[in-house]
Amino acid sequence: MKLSLRGEYALRALIALGESYDGAVISMLAVSGQQEIPKRFLEQIFNDLRAGGFVESKRGIAGGYRLARPMEEITVAEVMRHMEGTLASASNLSQKLPKLNPQAGGAQFAIRAVMRDVRDAIVKVLDQVTIADLLKRSRQLQSEAVNTADYTI
User: Fold this and answer.
1) Which of 38, 60, 78, 128 is most buried when burial is the number of CB atoms within 10 A of its CB?
2) Quick check: is 30 in a domain?
C-alpha cells in the first residue's frame, strides 16, 4: 500500500485546517506556506477534498478553507480512499501476483494469505486513525523535537 505525494499533501492540509478548528477559514496561501505544499498543487487537492466533503470553502478577500466536519470524524482511510482510490483489496492483490504454481505446494497460498492479513491490518489501523489523532501526534512530535537538546562541541 502506497501513499502518494498527493495523498500526503491532502492529509497535511487537513491537519493544518484542524490546527484552527474553531470554524474560522484558513487561506490557501497560509496552508501552502505552513505545510510547504506548492500552491497550484494545493488548489487541486482542496478541490478534491471539497468534492469529497472533507472541506468547505469561502470566497472573497477573507476567504479560505475549513474542515466540513469535526476532525474526530474524518479517518485517514476515507481520505486515502478518496484521494488514491480504493485501498488494496484481496482481488487487487491476487491480480498483481503471478498465477499460482501447483508445484510450489502451499507455500504460495501461505505467503498470499499472510500478505492479505498484513493489508487488512493496515486498513484496520487507517480506519481507526482520525485527523484529530494525526494532529495530536504532530503536536507531540513537534514538542519532542523542540525539547531535544542539541549539543555542539
Assistant:
1) 78
2) yes
